[in-house]
């Protein structure tokens, strides 16, 4: 029986894939990979006593790549859902994935999430946040029209171009966009829908179990010694309340 | 392989296929027409115009479709050009394809021996008639294959339309993949649909080629 | 120059060539050719290979843009908009087309359209230029093909015709248009003696109907029989232009012409 | 819209660095495409029905299956049969082999318009078929097909962006990543477009020069 | 048929044609041709346009796959692997190439390669078949071009040559290879009388050097002067094959031949 953790330790290197296109978790700044995931995982690799090597892949090919064994682990933030848990092994939460809304700066018609009622809102297709947004929209008097984009950039670009009034995605992402282009985007508080969390994933089979356990242990250690807090404050300016046990998912 | 997936996503996939075919046909036929006009203007039009056409061809051909589409759709509104996704998709498809077609037609023009055109001029045939009766039928010999090639390439370029939320085939298969965490099945469906289009295009191309090369077959 | 000369041109000249010259890059293909072709005349051009016969013919319908001098057809300047202007500007395509309608041509290399049957090759211009109905055009084309004994090959593509058959299609294509002037570039090069005779008689008929013809040929016998005058070209210059009796009948004055004709004479005493 | 030249200026070095991958993959791909495409075309026209059939099959497969899927096959499926290609090689091979199918068809079309008499003349002289192809058929086919060939090579440059699915940070990928950080897609994409244009323009000019050189007479 | 005939073939025959027939679809282009060509002989083929002269020539080096009968060169069957097998299977490209190296051909339509200069057209086969060095090949090519008086046009592309010049390049290209047998398809059709004389003398030299030649021609004078025997084809059949004196010297027996030659005789009394 192969064991991923011992393989990695024997190699002295863990190859982790992500899409370097999900600020503030993963981004390419001045040609270098940085972000919350990077900072966190560097620490974890240190704990494991191995070197971390990062790969940039489009989201479409990350999970197929994982299954084909082209790399060991996915450090992209993946929203923890029941359906996904059937197929993959998740780590403990590493970020808040609750949906939040961004609007065009200066748009006075929207001051709270419910104001999207009857308006057009964009989001990334195939995400857990889309499901949340749909559910939320249904609960409104007049539901919002929801447009799905292959990428959140395009949704934001379309909002800047004036075709849509809001973009919904995970709270950290929307917050970061608002900070980066203050004159253009604005975060609408509070987040809405069910609280959701991001985790990292490994293959769903037995031999990645030990790796997940080791990473979880390392994460818990970071919870305690304040490294997690420091990293989050560096990127978000605040510290999300992340659970230290696996959250309940329906 | 989970076949019930196809039952569940079948209608969406078919719908996407329809949109793909619509954009592809409208875009590529428009592209052929514009390309042909460009090639003709380049050959018979005033000299200054051929420079304009050269610049157009080089710029549009030299830059990626995704970026053109992005600029048209997301940049357009800044100059007051607001298009719907399908409108933008078809427009940019026509624009994107035309320089390639123009170049293919140019190569076709070059392949006709000068003497045959001289012979046509000598009997006083008008230039348009020469184009239709002498040049076009013969230039189809060398260019049917490249034309078929490019129609086939365009079938797959439709995938890029998903960037502007055109609900085409790739868009639908991505939804399927994201919602079900399967990869083989959606890609299989995608490949199958494209393959179908390519098969039909290739078949038509072969038929056209057979027809236009009739005179080359020696008994 | 020329303006005065032109006005002195005999009234019955349909083509007047004045001081014509043509360069291919540095190579002087025609030098200072001056020549008249009278209405209904048959003028044969003879001369060594590469002497400029085809080039001269091609200048007459402006397939070559001549560099110096002028060519007039029925008093109309061929090809150029205006001779005084420098550099010269060619006529528009449409104007050229009008001029060329009156001038038929049979090419040295035939230049048939390979994607059309023999019949369609002949019928094409009848529909598109003469505006005959499809049916009429086919009939007329068939008549022209019959003149050159090709009625049974009407449906063949050029690739499936023998060399002589191709040449005859080219002749039929040109004569079907009934132009005022016909330019023939070696119209019998691929024909057997019998057919040469036939083509000769076709041309005699045309001449009788008043068609003007300029014929490049290497067959002296042909020239002797069909021509009103024979012009001899050498290295791009017009050496002489005289009736055939003078050219072939007695020992020519010019040494170049003499040596040219000699080999022929010797060989043809069979 | 406030267009930010700063963003462009700041990120230009990274875009240019990424363009090196684009150039590496597409130039290597072109080499495969042209050489293999010519061979494929010869096979497609060969007298042997089996070779011909194989070429037809090859062409219909590589034209029929989306390149993305081919690339995924090369990278993710070949390991199952024991051929684990590194990402760059897989990308080069996939783009080159796919493009060869198109190149072969372009050449075949062009060859058809070369009068058969020229081939007969070569036969009559006993010229070996390799020389016939190299000296007589290919130069003329290239002259006639050059605009279409340049089309194909330019498409190859652009399609090299698919290499991102196997983890190569080529130009399109990097510009998307930078967009994700700067939220300035128009600026970044226009810059990327200019770089693509520069690469393709070199191709196009070379194509025209070759075309001129091969012009007859 | 044939097997026995073959063995009875005269020893000095280099080409033996037995019961050759060729169809284009339903059209019978050659019917039951039987013919020997002796070593160093010059055989002229004459006959009306479309009678099958070019087709016969093309069968001799298997550019046309003949349907019936056989062609042997030096005792070797041309083109087919095995005559008894039905349907016949052609030789592989390589084997055909070997056979064709010994047979030169000048085409009726020249078939020059338009993207090569005159010199390169001639030099090409010298490098790729005879394996001469580039330099040697160019020298030999230049020598061949000089024989046909084209040394000053060596760098021209075919499109920039006159008809006669193109034909001479085609001749130079074939003779530079020094094959055992040469097939000429109307080698002088585009040449002026002087050059016809020159080509004739080139051919006489080749004959003296022992080359076998089959020449399709429409010039009876040429045939009379150069041929050892003259064959007359009509509608795909070999009507007669006799020495030129017999063909031209006295009134021919065959009515068809008689009428064919008549027009020619009349016209050439210049
Ligand atoms: N590929 C072909 N398909 C059909 N018929 C053909 C083909 N090639 C030649 N023919 C016919 O076969 C006959 C003989 O042709 P061939 O070229 O041998 O004649 P030829 O004696 O050389 O005549 P010419 O003196 O005019 O060149 C002609 O009637 C021609 O129409
Ligand atoms: N396009 C061209 N470029 C350069 N030189 C040319 C071109 N066309 C013809 N020539 C040259 O011009 C001269 C005259 O050519 P032309 O075709 O008029 O000769 P010709 O008298 O018809 O000869 P032939 O009897 O061999 O057909 C030749 O020496 C030829 O090489
Ligand atoms: Mg000439
Ligand atoms: Mg012939």
TrEMBL record, chain B:
Q: Does the keyword Lipid biosynthesis apply?
A: no
Question: Which GO biological process annotations does it have?
Answer: amino acid transport
Q: Does the keyword Secreted apply?
A: no
User: Which compartments does it reside in?
Assistant: Cell inner membrane; Cell membrane
Topology within the bilayer: Multi-pass membrane protein
User: What start-end ranges are recorded for coiled-coil regions in this protein?
Assistant: none
Q: Which family does it belong to?
A: Belongs to the binding-protein-dependent transport system permease family. HisMQ subfamily.
Q: What is this protein called?
A: Amino acid ABC transporter membrane protein 2, PAAT family
From TrEMBL, chains C, E:
Which GO terms of the cellular component aspect does the record hold? plasma membrane
GO: which molecular function terms? ABC-type amino acid transporter activity; ATP binding; ATP hydrolysis activity
Instruction: Show where the ABC transporter domain sits.
Output: 15-260
**Which stretch is the leader sequence?**
none
Q: How does it sit in the membrane?
A: Peripheral membrane protein
PROSITE patterns per record: ABC_TRANSPORTER_1, ABC_TRANSPORTER_2
What keywords were assigned to this record?
Amino-acid transport, ATP-binding, Cell membrane, Membrane, Nucleotide-binding, Transport
Q: Which CDD domains match?
A: ABC_HisP_GlnQ (cd03262)
Q: Spell out the InterPro entries in the cross-references.
A: AAA+_ATPase, ABC_ATPase_HisP-typ, ABC_transporter-like_ATP-bd, ABC_transporter-like_CS, MetN_ABC_transporter-like, P-loop_NTPase
The record's listing under SMART domains reads:
AAA (SM00382)
Taking the first listed entry, what is the main subcellular location of this protein, grouped into a coarse class?
A: membrane
- List the subcellular locations: Cell membrane
Q: Which family does it belong to?
A: Belongs to the ABC transporter superfamily.
**PANTHER family in the cross-refs:** AMINO ACID IMPORT ATP-BINDING PROTEIN (PTHR43166), GLUTAMATE_ASPARTATE IMPORT ATP-BINDING PROTEIN GLTL (PTHR43166:SF9)
**Under what name is this protein listed?**
Amino acid ABC transporter ATP-binding protein, PAAT family
Q: Which organism is it from?
A: Cohaesibacter marisflavi
Q: What is the lineage of its organism?
A: Bacteria, Pseudomonadati, Pseudomonadota, Alphaproteobacteria, Hyphomicrobiales
UniProtKB/TrEMBL annotation, chain D:
Q: Name one GO molecular function term.
A: transmembrane transporter activity
Q: What is its main location?
A: membrane
Point out the coiled-coil segments of this chain.
Answer: none
Q: Which compartments is it annotated to reside in? A: Cell inner membrane; Cell membrane
Q: Which UniProt keywords apply?
A: Amino-acid transport, Cell membrane, Membrane, Transmembrane, Transmembrane helix, Transport
One GO term of the biological process aspect: amino acid transport
Task: Identify the CDD domains for this entry.
Answer: TM_PBP2
One cellular component (GO) term of this entry: ATP-binding cassette (ABC) transporter complex
Q: InterPro entries annotated for this entry?
A: AA_ABC_transptr_permease_3TM, ArtM/GltK/GlnP/TcyL/YhdX-like, MetI-like, MetI-like_sf
- What's the protein's topology in the membrane? Multi-pass membrane protein
**Record-annotated ABC transmembrane type-1 domain positions:** 19-207
Q: Where are the transmembrane segments?
A: 20-43, 55-78, 188-210
Q: What is this protein for, i.e. what is its function?
A: Part of the ABC transporter complex GltIJKL involved in glutamate and aspartate uptake. Probably responsible for the translocation of the substrate across the membrane.
| Protein family (similarity comment) | Belongs to the binding-protein-dependent transport system permease family. HisMQ subfamily.
- Assembly state and interactors? The complex is composed of two ATP-binding proteins (GltL), two transmembrane proteins (GltJ and GltK) and a solute-binding protein (GltI).
Q: What is this protein called?
A: Glutamate/aspartate import permease protein GltK
């Amino acid at each position: 029986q192969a064991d991923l953790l011992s393989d990695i330790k024997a190699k002295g290197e863990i190859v982790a894939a992500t899409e370097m296109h999900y600020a503030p978790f993963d981004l390419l700044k001045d040609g270098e990979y940085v972000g919350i995931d990077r900072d966190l995982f560097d620490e974890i690799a240190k704990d494991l006593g191995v070197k971390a090597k990062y790969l940039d892949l489009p989201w479409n090919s990350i999970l197929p790549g994982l299954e084909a064994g082209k790399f060991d682990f996915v450090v992209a933030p993946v929203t923890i859902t029941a359906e996904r848990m059937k197929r993959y092994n998740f780590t403990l939460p590493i970020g808040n994935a609750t949906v939040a809304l961004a609007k065009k700066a200066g748009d006075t018609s929207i001051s709270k999430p419910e104001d999207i009622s009857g308006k057009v809102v964009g989001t990334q297709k195939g995400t857990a946040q889309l499901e949340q947004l749909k559910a939320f929209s249904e609960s409104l008097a007049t539901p919002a029209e929801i447009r799905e984009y292959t990428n959140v950039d395009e949704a934001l670009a379309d909002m800047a171009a004036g075709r849509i009034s809001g973009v919904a995605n995970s709270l950290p992402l929307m917050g970061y966009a608002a900070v980066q282009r203050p004159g253009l985007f604005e975060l609408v508080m509070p987040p809405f829908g069910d609280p959701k969390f991001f985790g990292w994933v490994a293959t769903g089979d037995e031999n990645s179990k030990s790796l997940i356990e080791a990473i979880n242990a390392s994460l818990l250690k970071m919870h305690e010694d304040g490294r997690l807090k420091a990293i989050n404050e560096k990127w978000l300016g605040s510290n999300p309340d992340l659970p230290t046990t696996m959250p309940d998912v329906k | 392989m989970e076949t019930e997936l196809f039952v569940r996503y079948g209608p969406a996939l078919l719908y996407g296929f329809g949109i793909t075919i619509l954009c592809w046909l409208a875009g590529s036929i428009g592209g052929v027409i514009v390309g042909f006009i460009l090639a003709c203007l380049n050959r018979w039009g005033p000299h200054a115009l051929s420079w304009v056409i050269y610049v157009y061809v080089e710029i549009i051909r030299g830059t990626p479709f995704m970026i053109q589409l992005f600029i048209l759709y997301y940049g357009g509104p800044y100059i007051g050009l607001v298009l719907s996704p399908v409108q933008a998709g078809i427009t940019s498809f026509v624009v994107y394809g035309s320089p390639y077609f123009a170049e293919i037609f140019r190569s076709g023009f070059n392949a006709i021996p000068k003497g045959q055109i001289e012979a046509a001029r000598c009997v006083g045939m008008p230039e348009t008639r020469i184009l239709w009766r002498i040049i076009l039928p013969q230039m189809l010999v060398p260019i049917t294959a490249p034309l078929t090639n490019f129609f086939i390439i365009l079938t797959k370029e439709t995938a890029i339309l998903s960037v502007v939320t055109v609900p085409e085939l790739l868009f639908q298969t991505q939804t399927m993949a994201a919602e079900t965490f399967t990869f083989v099945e959606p890609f299989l469906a995608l490949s199958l649909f494209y393959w179908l289009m390519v098969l039909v295009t290739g078949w038509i191309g072969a038929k056209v080629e057979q027809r236009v090369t009739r005179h080359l077959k020696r008994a | 120059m020329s303006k005065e000369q032109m006005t002195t041109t005999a009234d019955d000249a349909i083509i007047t060539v004045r001081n014509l010259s043509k360069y291919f890059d540095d190579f002087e293909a025609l030098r200072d050719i001056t020549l008249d072709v009278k209405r209904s005349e048959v003028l044969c051009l003879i001369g060594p290979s590469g002497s400029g016969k085809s080039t001269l013919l091609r200048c007459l319908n402006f397939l070559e843009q001549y560099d110096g001098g002028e060519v007039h057809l029925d008093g109309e300047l061929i090809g150029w908009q205006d001779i005084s202007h420098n550099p010269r500007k060619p006529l528009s395509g449409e104007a050229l087309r009008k001029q060329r309608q009156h001038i038929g041509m049979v090419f040295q290399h035939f230049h048939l359209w390979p994607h059309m049957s023999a019949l369609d090759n002949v019928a094409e211009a009848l529909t598109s230029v003469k505006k005959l109905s499809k049916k009429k055009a086919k009939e007329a084309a068939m008549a022209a093909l019959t003149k050159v004994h090709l009625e049974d090959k009407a449906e063949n593509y050029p690739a499936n015709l023998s060399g002589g058959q191709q040449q005859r299609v080219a002749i039929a294509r040109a004569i079907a248009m009934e132009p005022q002037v016909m330019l023939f570039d070696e119209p019998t090069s691929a024909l057997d003696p019998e057919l040469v005779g036939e083509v000769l008689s076709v041309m005699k008929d045309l001449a009788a109907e008043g068609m003007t013809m300029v014929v490049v040929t290497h067959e002296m016998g042909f020239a002797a029989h069909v021509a009103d005058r024979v012009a001899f070209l050498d290295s791009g210059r017009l050496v002489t232009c005289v009736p055939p009796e003078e050219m072939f009948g007695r020992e020519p004055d010019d040494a170049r012409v003499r040596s040219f004709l000699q080999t022929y004479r010797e060989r043809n005493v069979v | 819209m406030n267009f930010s030249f700063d963003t462009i200026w700041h990120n230009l070095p990274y875009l240019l660095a990424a363009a090196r991958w684009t150039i590496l993959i597409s130039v290597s791909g072109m080499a495969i495409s042209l050489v293999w495409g010519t061979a494929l075309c010869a096979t497609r026209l060969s007298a042997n029905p089996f070779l011909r059939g194989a070429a037809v099959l090859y062409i219909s497969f590589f034209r029929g299956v989306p390149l993305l899927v081919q690339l995924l096959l090369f990278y993710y499926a070949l390991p199952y049969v024991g051929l684990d290609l590194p990402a760059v090689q897989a990308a080069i091979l996939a783009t080159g082999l796919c493009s060869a199918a198109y190149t072969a068809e372009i050449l075949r079309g062009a060859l058809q318009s070369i009068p058969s008499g020229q081939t007969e003349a070569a036969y009559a002289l006993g010229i070996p078929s390799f020389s016939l192809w190299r000296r007589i058929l290919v130069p003329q086919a290239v002259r006639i097909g050059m605009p279409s060939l340049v089309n194909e090579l330019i498409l190859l440059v652009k399609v090299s962006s698919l290499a991102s699915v196997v983890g190569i940070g080529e130009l399109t990928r990097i510009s998307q990543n930078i967009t994700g950080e700067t939220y300035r897609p128009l600026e970044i994409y226009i810059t990327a477009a200019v770089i693509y244009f520069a690469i393709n323009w070199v191709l196009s000019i070379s194509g025209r020069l070759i075309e001129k050189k091969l012009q007859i007479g």
